[in-house]
Every structure is written in C-alpha cells, then in structure tokens.
C-alpha cells in the first residue's frame, strides 16, 4: 500500500492506536517477531586487540566539534588480502592539538586469527589536529591503498610507502590550506571519485560550517551544567570542495570551474552511486538542518539537482538533522535507493529511486518512518547482514550527550520493508553509547559482513555474526576453504574508497564502497 508521509501521520500512528493504523502497519509486530524468530541476523562483539577509545575532550564548554567526530576506515595497508582498520580521533580543546597518545589516530593490523595489533607508531599515523573522518583509496595508482584524513581546520593525505609506513604528502599534493574558501575549513567527510573518467580518483570534501573555538557561541545557560550544544542555525554554512587529480601526485581545486559555486550547506555524510543509471558517478551530501545536496554528473558536467530529484528535503518539505547516508537497492527493482539518518523525533529518510535520477519519499512504505521516530542515527550502511539477497540497514546509534546514549540498530529488509530486529541479535548489541562511525567488511573471512563502530569516550565495537547464519564461503573438493563469494569488502570487485566520518559511511563510505569500471575508467560507486 502506498501512503504519503502526511497521510501516515494523520492516521495517529504516533500514538500506536491499533484501530487507527493502516492494515499493513498493524501487521508490523508479527513481521518483527517472525524476523527475530528466524534468527538470520544474530551478532556478538569480538576482536581482541581493538582497544581504540574515541576521545572528544568534552569538559562542559559544549564546543560543537565534540559531537561529530569518530570516523574510521577499512584499508588493506599491507596488501595481504585481509581488511585492516584505521580510526580517527579527537584532540585537546580548544587548542585542536593531539597532546598525547590518548588522542592519536590508530591503525590496527588484522592478524588473520580474529585479533588485531596496533601498528600506529610504526606506520607513522598518529596524526595531527582534531580528526573527523577518513577516505581510503589508491589515489596515485601504484597498487597501494592510501589515506585521506578529514579534520577541523586541517586535512591530511598519507601516501602508503608499501613497507608498512606512510608519508604525509599533504603539502606536496597541494591539499594544505583552505583553498578557494579563503579560511580554515571544518571538513566532516571526504570521498574519492573519478568524476571526469580519466582513470584517476579525484577528491570531494563535505564541509560543515564556519567554526572556531574562540567564536563558538554559548547556548543554554551560563551556569555549570546548564549549557547545551548550539543549533546549527547559529553557524554559517560552508562551501563543499572538489579537487581534480592531476596524475602527478598533486591536486587542483576545481569547485568553481566545474560550475558548483553554490554548492553550499552544512555538509555531513556522503553517499556515492550511479543513481541516474547513465554510467557516471554522482554523490549525495546529507546536510544538518539545511537542504541536502545531490550532485549529478551529466553530459554537461557536474550539476546540483537535489530539489529537482526530490531528495533536498524530507517528505514534508522540511530540513532534518541529516547525518549518515548510503545508496543501495532497498526494494529490489535494481535501482540504487537512498537512506539518510537524523536525530530523535525527526525520523529518518528513505528516497526510492524511480529511474533517471528521480526519487520518491519511501519512508512510510518501507516502514522506516515509524521505526526511527525515537532513534538518533549517525553513520549507516545498506548491507546484506543475513545473506538473503536483500540489503539490511545498520545504523550507529547515539544522541549528542551522555544522557541520550542509544544502542546501535539493525533493520532487517523483508522484501522492501524494514523490521527492527535489534533486540534479537544478541545481548551485547543492545549496549547504549554515543556511537558515531561505522564501516563494514568481512574481517574474519567467513563469508559474512561484520561491522566496526566507534563510540565517544567508549571502546570501539566489532560486531560479528555469531555463526548461526549461512556463510557465503564454499568448501572446495579437496577440503580447503575457498574464498568467500565476492571479497572481504562486501563486493566482487576491488574497493578503492573506504572510510567514514561519524556521519558518512563507506560501504560509505561510510561501509564499504566499490570501485566499478565505467567506460574503461575507475570510479567509486554504490
């Protein structure tokens, strides 16, 4: 049954009066029980050695940057075919300096036995500044995966030397400084894509707002314990940025050259896909209480088409606190749909792809409108967690402050409709926290996707299937285990752009994004 968002709300669904609900919604509890009983999605926490703690240095001043950090990325830095993890971290406030090991970014090597080892110092990746997110890609086409780390008033590009170490090449690459912005940027997320199909990955930055510690307004009250984080309306929106890969290790900013001088917002998560079905990569930028941006790569170059495509606002024509986003085929029609998370009492968004780059509001028809009403979501991924061929939705859950800690959530896809099965996937999974970043990979190579999640002032979580589901791995005739179907990144082709901010996912990208070949060139797609 197709029903509009306004029609759904008029039914009184928010008060859960059964007699006032549409028939399909009254059946939702039965569907939920059936999904839990089937047991196809069960998770447990694991991975010895992953001792990362995300630190934001919050001390009561309520600096805006304290809420948005926590990105992490999947990288095979040593080329052994096993997914490793890179985690970004905060810094001291208000200095924005990493004053000790507690604020270091961290690189964890996969030991191939279910455990990880911290190799940060050897790799030279302790980092600088207040880091936010990361994007992984082989930007120089040397066969080794590199790291771009987004942060507050400073981004960094690290080139993989191939011997377990990295070199900061930010200055050499032309990526130091504010570029055309003319002032230091607060970059929340980044992604790699070959927008011009020249075989080289270019760089897109999602910038949040014009912020500095010295000018951050005081909201709430002046007394101890009465302060609050300010609404995004208190800050000036920022320009997104696009950098062209010159093929010689350097980049040139081409934002205005590509006709995007008005690509302004309060950028958060990025999602990538050939959503128009024309063989060209495009991207979506979730915005925090500003209109969302959809960049289409058309025959005349890049253009912003969020309003025309139907994704700039929610189904009521309003802004929400857009956080994480991801593309994926939710309803099984072969077209990449779009999901975006937000904060509690806003509801999250589903935009169903109707072809040729046009979308309809699908929040009601997929069931996510009501399921997300009381939840705050950050990084997210449309990933098949139970190997049934339908993309499920994993969301890192948590509010702005400790008093609003929430568990992560899993919504199982029951043929185009979601059911919240979070309470049935394991006791540890229900642990409340201020979760932020999430990425997805088959870390133990058992043919099933796992999720790594960061949490502010908490130890990171690696969420793995508990062994009851059907793995994708097959057994060869000689008894040796074959490689899982696809690869550990969740796709069947090499992944060249993985990473996330607290709001981006690299499945996002945020999860695990796949590079596909289009017209002989590489690009990052969904």
Task: Write down how many β-strands occur, each being a DSSP E stretch of 2 or more residues.
Answer: 32
Q: Summarize the main sheet.
A: 4 strands, antiparallel
Tally of helical segments = 7
Poorly predicted segments: 1-38, 469-497, 504-526
Structural class: mainly beta
Residue-averaged pLDDT: 83
Rg, please? 21 Å
Percent range of helical residues: under 10%
Tell me the span between the first and last alpha carbons. 28 Å
* Approximate shape: globular
Q: How are the strands ordered across the major sheet?
A: 1-30-29-28
- As a percent range, the share of strand residues is 25-35%
Would you give an account of this structure?
The chain has seven helices and 32 strands. The protein is 7% helix and 31% strand. With 526 residues, the chain is mainly beta. It is globular. The strands form nine sheets. The chain has a four-stranded antiparallel sheet, with no helix packed on it. A four-stranded antiparallel sheet has the order 2-3-4-5. The protein starts with a helix and ends with a strand.
